[in-house]
Amino acid sequence: MSRVGRLPVTVPSGVQVDIQGMNVRVKGPKGLIERTFASGVTIKMEDGHVVVQRESDAPTIRALHGTTRALLNNMVTGVSTGFTRVLEIEGVGYRAEMNGKNLVLNVGYSHPVDVPPPDGITFDVDTKTRQIKVSGFDKELVGQVAANIRSIRPPEPYHGKGIHYAGEKIRRKAGKSGKGKGKK
């Protein structure tokens, strides 16, 4: 049995879970998320908890068991507390600022890059620490938007300049070591 899949998902107060077959709708103070899950697992509400059970021991169904429970947990956590992904900017002259709701990045291009937030996503910029916070209630969307921002100027290995996740280790390369060597 899946160790993740057999754990019940606790539903906090203020969050409503509506299960109709394989369609699950979770509503909370942060927003509303709807998702349709694959068949092979059953989703039930049992005294304040959402329980996921699989119908067979086939390998594909076993894989779906833990995945379905994790997705349900992310939905419940997202509408109750939300998710945040922090990006850091490294480089001389590289900076981020807000223009209304849009994020404006000056990261070494001849023009500033404007990033509008999709529905359910908010940006927060700390100019002193040069951090960008991507927040929202859908974990998948928060991660995708953060990855899209990082892809505008990914960190390069020689000087470490670019946009990277907070806590991400950037593999550094030594560069040229031929100074002073040449014709004598």
Low-confidence stretches: none
Name the shape in a single word. elongated
**What proportion strand?**
35-45%
Briefly note the structural class of the backbone. alpha+beta
Number of strands: 13
Reading the helices and strands in chain order gives EEEEEEHEEEEEEHE
Name the CATH class of the largest domain: Alpha Beta
CA-to-CA gap between the ends? 71 Å
What is the tally of helical segments? 2
CATH homology superfamily name of the largest domain: Ribosomal protein L6
CATH architecture of the largest domain: Alpha-Beta Complex
User: In what order do the strands lie side by side in the largest sheet?
Assistant: 11-12-7-13
Mean pLDDT: 91
Helix content bin = 10-25%
The CATH topology name of the largest domain reads Outer Surface Protein A, domain 3
Brief write-up:
By secondary structure, this protein is an alpha+beta fold. It contains two helices and 13 strands, in the order E-E-E-E-E-E-H-E-E-E-E-E-E-H-E. The chain has two domains: 72 residues, Outer Surface Protein A, domain 3; 83 residues, Ribosomal protein L6 (Outer Surface Protein A, domain 3).
Layout of strands and helices, then pairs:
Elements: E1 9-10, E2 16-20, E3 23-27, E4 32-36, E5 41-46, E6 49-54, H1 59-80, E7 83-90, E8 95-99, E9 102-106, E10 113-115, E11 121-126, E12 131-136, H2 139-152, E13 162-165
